[in-house]
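Figure 2 data, in text form.
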Amino acid sequence: MNISTHTRLALMLFVLFAAAFLLTACGMPATGWAGASVVDNVLYTGTTAGKVMALDATTGALKWQFPAQPMIAVYATPVLANNLVYFGAFDHKFYALDAATGAKKWEFDATAPIVSSAVVGDNGLVYFGTNGKRVYALDALTGAKKWEFETQGEVWADPTLAQGVLYAASLDHRVYALDAATGARKWEFNAGGIVVTKPAVAEGLVYAAGLTKLYALDATSGAKKWEFTAANWVWTNPTVVGGVVYIGTLGGHVYALDALTGKEKWSTPFKAGDAVRSAIAVESGVAYFGSDDRRVYAIDANTGQGKWSRMTNGRVLSSPVVARGMVYVSSYDHLLYALDAATGTVRWSVDVTSGKLATPAVK
């Protein structure tokens, strides 16, 4: 093993242990992890200040926040369905809130911290993973447990639901395909390293990352169709749009790959100033993402050429959401930003520790 290989392995182990510390050091939660959902001009977001907030998406005005006393942290992105807001928290509880008022409808004790965001099916079930090495299916209206599936590692990644199958990834190196109705295992794939990213499903293929590899798997059998080796660890959830898979790495590279073959689409990957952990949000031919260099980027999704970047005062770990010409994204500086999608201009920002509008003071 040469020195560069030793260095790379040491870096990967350091990042893994640092991430584990981030999630277990309850007294020192990070900010800017959770993403947002926008429905009917209301933005719902979780904060690692221990709150879930509903904001007016146009103005940033606070509509409600839950709970009255902050929880430890919320790393999950709130999900909307059935006029309810679903999310899990680091306090071991999974919640369903009234979307209009923020009033609690029910809660479920998962007995372990929850990092994973949820997915809600049209079968009346809501699914999520936990640090207790479990994937749960609950009745979406009552919170009653329908089934649970045990893995051999923590489940940080959000599950994906497609055509009656739930795809879930774990730190045990595996991607699982589970029957969404019963939790029965249909197949599993060994990715050769911990999987922290949400599987993406499109056109009969499942895309999942393990360390530096991105895999395309047959959705029915789990058989590998192709693999791509990135220059560094793939931390972002794969995004599939228009036959192209977009991923980012801890080395700051952003790749666009042909979804059927895994071949690179751009002449060279885009290089941000530091690690890219947020998913790549693609809208109207533009790809948006954040970086540890404290910037939010917009690049041409077809060529990989930069369009604009916006500096914040902290690392940008959360995945942007694009709606109505705005890009919404949280930063490590405790602010949630609403940026003009065309120019990157700040339209408003909110301090997620207080819910109040704030003027960013970028150095």
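Caption note: The chain is about 5% helix and 45% strand.
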